[in-house]
Amino acid sequence: MSRLLALFPLNLVVFPGEKLNLHIFEPRYRQLVRDCIEADITFGIPPYLNEGVSELGTEVRLLSVDKHYENGEMDIRTKAVGVFRIREFFRQAPGKLYAAGTVEDIRDDPDQDAALKVRITEYVQQLYGALGLRKLFVELPPTYCIFDIAHNLGLSTDQEYQLLAATSEQERQEIVLEHLERVLPVIMEAERLKDRARLNGHFKNLTPPNF
């Protein structure tokens, strides 16, 4: 079933469950925030990719306005709640400055593949260890999903959009596993070369082979 949703296109991909802090300065989006407060509406963030508004986007809800500036600008906190598909895009909502679209909600299958998750977890642990991001891995709950880690996997914006377009957790697992199997050896080798470069010119304490 379609509905009209206010839109705030941005040059990024937002995943369901993600909390996003934004600085609002344009008059049209200041108006949007006021409408969120007064009418308790949500709005959508479709990624602006390849010089155009994407077909898919993420619906977000305003959590709070943390700061009002004298010139009317604001700092806000939001949380993403779901994914939608734009059926028709309007540069301006009726009587408003901001954009809108006729959208349809996309249903998602959250079931995970346990075997895939084990492999992904091992690869993520290796990746974060190589990059010095072990703290991020330690803070991951056992129930984490792909959306929880997607921004920390070195994916391009186009690849993140591919994850957003997937309609099941298992499909996202397969995408991420393929990405990690491709990039992890490259990253591990790069880190090994960096370690070797740091040793050049230093006294080395090496154990000679026993023969």
From TrEMBL:
UniProt xrefs under InterPro entries: Lon_prtase_N, Lon_prtase_N_sf, PUA-like_sf
All copies of domain Lon N-terminal, residue ranges: 4-182
PANTHER family hit by this protein: ATP-DEPENDENT PROTEASE LA (LON) DOMAIN PROTEIN
Name assigned to this protein: Peptidase
Native source species: Hymenobacter metallicola
Species classification: Bacteria, Pseudomonadati, Bacteroidota, Cytophagia, Cytophagales
